Amino acid sequence: MRNKLIIPFYCRASLVGAVLAGFFAFTAAVPVARANDECQERMAKIDHNLHEAIEHHGAQSSQAEHWRLRDA
Fold first, then answer.
1. What pLDDT, on the 0 to 100 scale, is given for residue 54?
2. Is residue 49 part of a domain?
3. Whose CA, among 1, 9, 57, 58, lies 20 to 30 Å from 28?
4. Does 23 map to a domain?
5. How far apart are CA 16 and CA 54, in angstroms?
6. Could you tell me if residue 34 is inside a domain?
7. Residues 6+ away with beta carbon under 8 Å from 47
8. What is the residue range of 43's domain?
9. Angle 24-28-29 (CA atoms, 0-180°, nearest 5)?
10. How many domains does the chain have?
11. Structure confidence by residue, pLDDT tens digits, 10-50
């Protein structure tokens, strides 16, 4: 006599649905986090260049104004 585990269809469907929902929830969030990191790195570089321009050329210089406009 075989001892076969019988799982009702709705239980299997619920389990598959939960696994798929978890998979899509975690894979959909990855590109958003990556884009945000790239934006933060870009803004940090612009901010650094602005401070360097102010230090070397003055606050009212065209170089500083250039980096201020890049920030906007």
1. 94
2. yes
3. 9
4. no
5. 58
6. yes
7. 71
8. 29-72
9. 125
10. 1
11. 888 888 999 999 888 777 666 666 767 888 899 999 999 99
